[in-house]
Amino acid sequence: MPSIRSIIDECDKELQTLADMIRRGNGDAALDRAMEGTAGPNADADCWATRAFVEDLLEMFDAADMSISKAMSLDSSAGLRFKRASIRLKAGHTARALEDALAVIASGDTFYRDEALLLAAEARRRLDCWEEAMRDCDALPESAEVWSGGLIAAREIRSQCSRMLAQQKAA
146-160: per-residue pLDDT in tens? Predict the structure, then answer.
């Protein structure tokens, strides 16, 4: 029986291989490979998450949302919900991204907490909920950052929200 570590290492190698294929201009081949993993009746959450990973890299955000949602129907982990929040934010589905980010925070999962707070803050900033976005950022270190289609940084969200709140008060 293989160890958990060896299984994780194999998954990481597969994701790296697919990312390398995309970087080399073989996105269609990477997508075909990921789709093959979800073609059979035994496709598990990891297969669907891998497909979402490839679709996300190819900026097929709506398809990635569907694939990660399928993965979540098989395994409702905080990690998959966080990934869906990130995909939805990139796709412009801001309210749904906020819902997922808040669910990750509420789950008590400490591994994704800070990144989920950043996604929630960014979603709230985009929804013009500046005070709430500031509160999310206040729970984070000044240096907090996450990549979701671009760098999202707590200091930038704070700065933008402060400026918008000042303009609102001046009006």
Answer: 888 788 999 999 999
